[in-house]
Amino acid sequence: MESKTTQKVPFWRSLRTKYVLTYLTLIAAVLLLLNTYPVLASQKMVFQSKQTSLWSQASVMSSALAGPDGLTQENVARVMEVLGDTGLSRVLVTDPSGVVLYDSSAASGALGRYALLYEVTSALGGRDEFTSDYTNGAFHSRAAIPVTYRDMTLGAVYVDEYDAEQGQLLVGIQQTLRTISIVIAAVSLAMSLVFSRALTHRIAQLLGAIRIVREGQYNHRVQMRGRDELSQLAGEFNALTDRLQTTEEVRRRFVSDASHELKTPLASIRLLSDSILQNDHIDPETVQEFVGDIGDEAARLQRITEHLLTLTRLDAETQVRTEPVEVAPVARRVEHMLEPLARAVDISLCLNLEEGLWVRATRDDLYQILFNLVENSIKYNLPGGQVDVTAKAMGDRVIITVEDTGVGIPEEDIGKVFDRFYRVDKARSRAAGGTGLGLSIVRDTVRRHGGTVQAQRRNPEGSRFVVIFPLCGEGGEQ
Ligand code: ADP
Questions:
Q1: Residue 478 has what pLDDT?
Q2: Are strands 348-353 and 386-394 parallel, antiparallel or unpaired?
Q3: Cis peptide leading into 460, omega within 30 of 0?
Q4: Residues 288, 292, 298, 301: what is their CA dihedral angle, to the nearest 10 degrees?
Q5: What residue owns the CA closest to ligand 1's atom 8?
Q6: Running DSSP on this structure, what letter comes out for residue 394?
Q7: Residue 438 CB less than 6 A away from ligand 1
Q8: Which atom of ligand 1 is nearest to the CA of 440?
Q9: Could you read off the pLDDT of 58-80 as tens digits, one per residue?
Q10: Of 44, 207, 219, 360, which residue is most buried, by most CB within 10 angstroms?
Q11: Are the beta carbons of 224 and 202 closer than 8 angstroms?
Q12: DSSP 334-357
């Protein structure tokens, strides 16, 4: 597992390779388009302009040749002479059967022979023809149109043009595009390498931090500049590590406090049992007394472990089946259970409960909360003192108050009494059989039902604990 997660990612699978390849593929596609589309579009434009110009030149010739006398070598030669230099590579004029009557390149020897050209045959069939191609940096275009007079085909005019000038222009454009493409490709490659390096470097930084924290160094934080998603990820990671560190510290402190709390009664039990065992002449009354003490310490141990188990259960259970619980009956049950204890230490319990107040919780949890608070108010009270429990609705909330006329809590300890194992007066808590966990249980239980609990100093003396829950109807609606 260890080696698997820390393994080096193979080059071909790395994020960096994927990033660079994607980037380059995109750039290659763009460059391919850049190098083909403009050239093809320009070619098409040139073809179109050639078609227009060759057809119009051939039309001029065809109109000049058309007449009632038909076409002969002489009259064609005369007309072509009048028309002068056409600037074309070659001009052919044929009779209706395709025999050449005029050839601008006389040296070819085509005069009097059949013009075996597709364009000519097609033109003699009555169609205007045009073909053009672009090879070796030049445009070679051919056009043929019929010579007609009063719906009679007298022959055909065939023109041929070889244009290297426009071809060179296109070659120039192609070369420029190629140069631009090479520059773009080089810049893109360099940029993709730089960006991917920066990206993977930051990811590696994060990965390194995660590994360090995983090894148990919870105070490690990752420093990342910028405001992008990776910086946000680093921020979230640091926040997570903060929590982890706090949780770990709390856990350590809890384990050490718990062991300490368990150690004390265990040491007492050991000491007392050793005293009984090692002392041969111990009188039965002392043995009785020691065994009684052992029993007390064992009961203490039991209370601590029970409280610890309750806290562990509260930590572990995220989902509880809650139900609407009416506050007053639960408070009366608590009073009923604690009345003997209160009477024994001369404390009077007064209940002032609004009926019909429902909260969403479990009966046991609400009982536990009120029991712990009222029991504390009795334990930390003075003889002749009083404990008041009130419950009332305020808006959409239920406010339960447990207040006493007891020893009170010093200002500086108010915020800490809910901490695990925290006691203001250790000796008093011990003497009263306290574990230092009662209020932690109260706080965790209240919180899991969406409530809050607060400790306050009471004027002129004593303490007040205020629990607030969202009010809920009997049917369960909040
Ligand atoms: P314990 O088992 O020691 O009572 P708790 O968690 O219930 O532990 O309470 C923590 C500490 O808060 C107590 O040790 C006590 O010092 C103080 N405390 C709690 N309730 C009261 C109260 N009603 N009046 C005065 N001090 C109190």
A1: 55
A2: parallel
A3: yes
A4: -150
A5: 436
A6: E
A7: yes
A8: 6
A9: 999 999 999 888 899 999 999 99
A10: 360
A11: yes
A12: HHHHHHHHHHHTT-EEEEEE-TT-
